[in-house]
Design goal:
Elements (H helix, E strand, L loop, with lengths): L5 H15 L6 H15 L11 H6 L3 H13 L6 H9 L4 H4 L7 H11 L6 H8 L6 H12 L2 H8 L8 H8 L7 H12 L6 H11 L5 H8 L6 H13 L14 H9 L12
Helix pairs in contact: 4-5, 7-9, 8-9, 9-11, 12-13, 13-15, 14-15
Amino acid sequence: MKLIDFDDKFNRKMAEMIEKHAGERSEDEWEDAVAAAYKKFGDTYMAALGKTPRQYFAQMSDAELVETLKEYLLQEVSVPDFLCEEIEGRGVFPELLSLLEETDEELVLYALNLIGSDRRALQRYVAMLSEEGYDEHVKDAIADLLKERADDVTEAVLPLVHTQNAAYALEILSRTKRRDEGAYNALAQAFTQADEKDVPLYAGYLAAYGDDRALPLLFKKIDEQDIGFVAFQELKFAIEALGGEYTKERDFSSDPSYKKIMEAGGGTDIFGEKKK
């Protein structure tokens, strides 16, 4: 398929304009001008096409749009915003969903951005989390989308807690608003079994989930004498987020992380409190 490099055509025109009028605008003003010009470019008639760039993509079928997106990526030609806008404007359609069966990272990430957290993709998203064909970049993006629909995928995500993809499952479960014993138990167990380096993360998940039954677990952990400063601060935050309060004085003067934070803050901790 022969592609039209719309972005290259636009960039050449803008480069000429900027060179000619370089000193007439600030850098920020040029950024705004370029963005406005690109938007206008999409509606500018091109004699070689007999239509505007937006009309060029608007005439394509759903299947043609998806195949064109593939080709832009395959041939390493800059993907025009006008193509993505046309796809997004049509909503989620079968040919677009079919991209979730692909394994090329760049293509799949484009698909995720275009599909978003649409309900029709949720089942496939959960399945993708457990498949080895996708790396952490793709799975991170999927987890972010599933967090928006956590209540809809709770049951589907729970089995992943016992797999190598548990980290993604727990992140998603922490965002459920509908109370679920399976979700709470998974988050509580992950917290109690966490290594110290993971304590801040899982304490944050308990805070995000919002069930005050976790308070005894958090108080028990924060009272441990060997707890580090970073973990202590996240535990304190989680306790307060769940309606509790921790008032015991603790000495972290020998903690390496505490020392670095105090040095960087000019003698104050991350909350602006002066060193005692």
